[in-house]
Structure formats: C-alpha cells, structure tokens
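To: structure subgroup
Subject: Chain for Friday's discussion

All,

I'm putting the inputs and outputs inline so they're searchable in the archive.
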Amino acid sequence: MSYAFSSKATCQEYFGKAHDMVRKSVKAFVDKEILPFIDDWEEAGEFPRELYQKAAAVGILGTGYPEAYGGIPGDIFFHIAVSEELMRSGSGGLVAGLGSLNIAIPPILSAGTESQKEQFVKPVLAGEKIAALAITEPGGGSDVAGLQTTAVREGDYYRVNGSKVFITSGYRADQITCAVRTGEDGAHGISLLVIESGTPGYAVSEKYKKTGWWASDTAQIFFDDCRVPLQNRLGDENAGFYTIMENFQGERLALAIMANMTAQLALESSIAYAGERDAFGRKLKGFQVTRHTLVDMATLVEASREFTYRVAAKIDAGQDQIKEISMAKNFACSVSDKVTYDAVQIFGGYGYMRGYLVERLFRDNRILSIGGGTTEIMKEIISNYIL
C-alpha cells in the first residue's frame, strides 16, 4: 500500500552543521589527547588533572553553558554531541570524571547568586578546578529525602557533619555541590551548599576500587564539624530538594546517552569481529544466528537512541519530561545490558579478556542502571504518571 500526500512533513533533524563541527573538534581531541593513553589511565584509576584544562581550552567543558562564565552557549544537542564523541574513548569512567561538572554546576547556575556563579562556575569551566555532586550517603542513595548529613547554622556559618559515598571525582574534587539537612525530616528540610575541599573538617577516603568506570576517581567524603560559610548556600534554606530533583533530569539524560553509546560501541566491535573471526571454515557473520543477533542488537540501539533524542528535544523546548526521561534511561540501560552481554558472547573467550573493548564496556555498563536513580526508582516515578 502506498500513500500520496499533497505535501510532505519536514523530517526533524537533531544535529546541524554547527553540531558536526563540534563533533569533529571533540573527535580530534579524543584521538590526540585520550586514546593513546586511556589504557594506562584505566589501570591507574584516574586520568591526569591537566586533561581538564586541555578539554576546557578546546571548549569541551564549557559547551552549553553561559558565555558570561566562560561557556559556549548552545542547545542540548551540543552537550549530546560532546558526550557521544567522548564516549568513543571507550571509557565510561573518563567521561563520567571529566563530565562530573555537568551534574555539579547546574544547581549553582539555577539557584546560585551572581557572586557564587563567578566564584564556583568560572574556574570549573576553565578547567582550573574540579567539581563534583555529593548527594548519596552510606545509609541511602535513592532516598534523597531521607539524607542524614546535617548542617547546623551558627552565625555566618553552617557546621556540617556526616558523609557522602560513591562520589564521582570525589577524590580530587576542589568543590562539591552537597545536599545537607538544615531543617525538619523529609524533603522540606534539605539545602544545598558548595563546600570546598580545603575546608577544615573535610576529609576524603582512598579511591574506591570498582567493577567498572576505573578511570574515574570515586571516593567517600567525610565532614567532621566542617564550617561552611553561609554565603555558600545555594538558594533559600530548606529549598534544596526541588533543585536536586530538577538536576536529576539532566543526569538521567546524560546516563541514557552513555548507555546508548556503550551499546553502539559494543555493536560496532561485534560487527567488526564477526567479519574477521573464522570458525568452522567461515566468518562468524556467515552464520545466520550471528547475523540475526547483530540485527537485534542494531535494532535496539537505533530505537533507544531515537527515543532518547526525542525526549531531549522536548526537554530543550521546555516541556516537562520527568516520566519520559525516566523511561528513556531505563530503556537505554536495558538495551545496553542486552547488547554488551551479546557482544561478549559473540567474542567468546576473548570478550572476557582484558585488552578487548567489549570487556570494558560490559563492566562499565553495569553502573548505568544504578546511578542517577535506579531502575526501580525510575519505574516508581513512571507509575506515578500512568496509574
């Protein structure tokens, strides 16, 4: 059956020439500054601090942020283009570490004063300081409203006590955007403070040894009568919960993009390997079971990427996408789970060996359905909209 229309609808394109130029710039950066060294950085558990300044110099850190603070303004797809090209380094840990500012800076831009933005945003976008977000605590991650780290006001300071865990870039962060309890139990007693690492009473654990994301320095942060200036509070006292929830949407989009790219890289590696590997007198792609597996992988990746892009476009247009971004994150993570598993299966024993990209992708993938809100929390959010 065919249809004839008097006019054709315009096909939405998410990326234009300007986005392509950004992609080329980031690709050149990855090829020169990251790929030759990434295996060593993975083993070391961190990448050189100078990489932040190098990334800032070519506009990577500032993409999508206001020019007034050293950024390069642009729509949400500039951020996506940068993230996708950085993911071609093959290291989710590097992307998470280099990009930790993207979850630490937005609350400052959203709720901070002009002087706070000058003090805490400009140096980070310039690559001079490392910023991290500190929400999760030993007693709970997804239950933000139940956090226990306290900040008691004493004159022009808050006295902070407690700890935060699983903090990406936490080992080297110069400043953290930190959720604290300043009031009553529950969501209405939470505030956000920017806490600098040199503050007396601020301490950091050794770097965590993790299943994946090896190149990101992840640590626990402790506060023991840590005196933080009142002027470091973002927005009104006890009003931080809503800023945190708003920030989660960007983090979930970022994780969906990472999941889609993890799956894409696993698919590309599998297609290449199936065309090279001989088994039983022919290439792996000569077997129908292999071809059909690759087709299923490709279909899932394409569907997830398009859904994520569509949700991103609506977010950029100012539409409420809380339900949809939760769906996109869950779907992207489920796709990446399936595709990375199948990629290792196609590689066989080699897929289980260090030195093969699919092995790292398989490990790095596991955190994506936990960070930024677990799969189960995403389902609870979705259920509130559909039931």
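Points worth raising on Friday:
The radius of gyration is 22 Å.
The CA atoms of residues 150 and 181 lie 5 Å apart.

D.
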